[in-house]
Amino acid sequence: MSTLGPGREFDAIRALVRAWGRSASGIGDDAAVLDVPRGMRLVTSTDTSVADVHFRHAWLSADEIGWRATMAALSDLAAMGASPLGVLVAVSLPPERWSDLPALGHGIGAAVHEAGTVIVGGDTTRSATLSLTITVLGAAARPLARSGAQPGDAIWVTGVLGGPGRALEAWQQGRVPASADRARFARPVARLAAGRWLAANGATAAIDISDGLLADLAHVAHASGVRCCVHLDDLPCVAGAATRAVAVSGEEYELLVTAPRTLDLRAFASAIDLPLTCIGHVEAGAPEVVVDAAGVRVEITGGYDHLSG
Amino acid sequence: MSTLGPGREFDAIRALVRAWGRSASGIGDDAAVLDVPRGMRLVTSTDTSVADVHFRHAWLSADEIGWRATMAALSDLAAMGASPLGVLVAVSLPPERWSDLPALGHGIGAAVHEAGTVIVGGDTTRSATLSLTITVLGAAARPLARSGAQPGDAIWVTGVLGGPGRALEAWQQGRVPASADRARFARPVARLAAGRWLAANGATAAIDISDGLLADLAHVAHASGVRCCVHLDDLPCVAGAATRAVAVSGEEYELLVTAPRTLDLRAFASAIDLPLTCIGHVEAGAPEVVVDAAGVRVEITGGYDHLSG
Questions:
Q1: Least CB–CB distance from A46: residue in B41, B121, B147
Q2: Is the CB of B36 inside 8 Å of chain A's CB atoms?
Q3: Which residues, in sequence order, are bridge partners of residue B224?
Q4: Hey, is the C-beta of A276 within 8 angstroms of any chain B C-beta?
Q5: What's the rounded Cα separation, in Å, for the pair B192 and B195?
Q6: Is A274 at the interface with chain B, CB within 8 A?
Q7: I want to staple A108 with a disulfide (CB 3.0 to 4.6 A). Which of A53, A66, A146, A265 is the partner?
């Protein structure tokens, strides 16, 4: 068994804290202390990224691995309409990847900085596989749930979909992905400002797209007890993507939101620099997702299956 | 690559939620929502336990692995004098250990129940190695830090030390540990009530013993800028343990606390069913830990090094 006792663990922590600079705050006690602003509720989630499950080392730099894991975790706060208060970072890595630590830390720190928050604590340990578990802490006056979708609501999605799916497909076929597709996989951005705006302006339910639009919308349909109808032709797609592939492209970290049709699109556009597209509507009925293309119902099976392909 | 797509991930979550019963609360949204009681601060920490680093499968049952990882994380709240509000559980496991999930979940749930809290969320993924990252959320009106030790304080420790070190030593020598020693390693108990009592009754600094008494006391000495003097003969030791080994026995999850000598031991004894032993005192001076035995200064090198031995 290799050795990585407290000495090396403290070296690891020092390497990370150096990489984080002012993005690290108050690290050094057994636990971090934070204040949730008065009138706000604590919103928290944890998310693990594992080498060869969520990414391959051949695809991403250590910096990108750190960024992506952190943004994927922060995306859960975005889906709840919450503002981040802080992030806890647990890093497990094999001794032969030890030298990746500064770059990994840099990517984590850059994502945390981009999201306007700080790293408040963490843990480092050795392991057979590189793994990051990022825990996010946020606050929201009225957190958005998956369960509030109402018949009559429209269904909206942020951004443009399909890039991560196309990048994965290219890698799995031994091709180099188009750089725009690769960037959507390697450098996702948690839609925090969009989530907060939507929560404050009438959204009834939200989820972030991690398993694929249809799979994630099914969670909303079941949690809300409603039927969700998606118009395939209305999906905002990256150049070159087939709409059926876009409908199941995972790890997009865009927001899927239900809201009354009266949602003020102009106000959204003036506040948030991100496309917001109506892709369907909510009906009373058995909880399910139904899809049509040019008015004809279609069946789309399969969903995002991490790297099982 | 083996397959563990969303289907199996949801099966895993269902298996865990079944094992947790009423110890799971509000799981199902992108993030959990909690309230920090008014006037209290949020206290949070994350802790990873990895197979073949923190334990070996040959030593512990899956139930014990779950319990131990959870109590180790909760111990950080105890050291801060905080009350737990909830726990997030990230489980990574290899497909061949899939069948361990209910027992692992049972151990986690039992520890959470013992600590009087609930599981509010988590993540499951496959990995080459079993790994648990437990994030604890707690609240305290006045969290205890490592940095408050004052010259003139006494140094106290809860419980009786040395069991985990003796268990590890036996396993590493191919022997079966004594059952009391094994239980101290396999079934630690976070000293939450003791931590709260001490925080409310004059403790100036605290840390939990994870790396060994001397190594953890050194953190207090450095954070507080004081010299900590330990009387080796005063350490509370399990039967059969050498005091020098006890001084470096790790993963004890007992509390090491500084407090004025006027600490009300009778009140502690009537409130908390746990030994509390004075093992030394705090002096002004360069930050260090000095140790004496029968009044003669001794040097003790080495500390807890996980499974590197």
A1: B121
A2: yes
A3: none
A4: no
A5: 5
A6: no
A7: A66
Tell me, what's the pLDDT at A127? 93
Chain B interface includes A107 (CB < 8 A): no
Instruction: State the nearest Cα–Cα gap between A25 and chain B, in angstroms.
Output: 13
pLDDT in tens, A251-293: 999 999 999 999 999 999 999 999 999 999 999 999 999 999 9
- Classify residue B153 by burial, with Cβ atoms within 10 Å: 0-12, 13-18, 19+: buried
CA-wise closest residue to B167 among B180, B157, B158: B180
**Cβ–Cβ < 8 Å for A176, A170:** yes
Q: How far is CA B193 from CA B34, B124, B231, B274, in A?
A: 22, 31, 26, 10
Please give, one letter per residue, the 3-state secondary structure of A105-158: HHHHHHHHHHCCCCEEEEEEEECCCCEEEEEEEEEECCCCCCCCCCCCCEEEEE
**B218 part of contact set with chain A, CB < 8 Å:** no
**pLDDT exceeds cutoff 90 at B120:** yes
Q: By C-alpha distance, which of B146, B147, B149, B166 is closest to B208? A: B146
Helix (H) or strand (E) holding B299: none
Q: Where are the alpha helices (DSSP H) in chain A?
A: 6-20, 62-79, 101-114, 163-172, 179-186, 192-200, 213-224, 243-246, 265-271
Instruction: For B224-240, write each residue's pLDDT tens digit.
Output: 999 999 999 999 999 99
> Is A158 in CB contact (< 8 Å) with chain B?
no
Whole-prediction pTM value? Answer: 0.93
Q: Which of B31, B41, B125 lies nearest to residue A76, judging by beta carbons?
A: B31
CA torsion angle B281 B282 B283 B286 (round to 10)? 130
Identity at A37, one-letter amino acid code: P
Cα–Cα distance between A293 and A238 in angstroms, integer? Answer: 18
Assess: ipTM above 0.85.
yes
Nearest Cα of chain B lies from the Cα of A135 at a distance, in angstroms, of 7
Interface test with B, best of A27, A133, A248 (most B CBs within 10 A): A133
Question: Is any Cβ of chain A less than 8 angstroms from the Cβ of B5?
Answer: yes
Q: Which residue has the tokens 């040019």?
A: A294
Mark yes or no for CB contact B31/A123 under 8 Å: no
What residues form DSSP beta bridges with B230? B280, B291
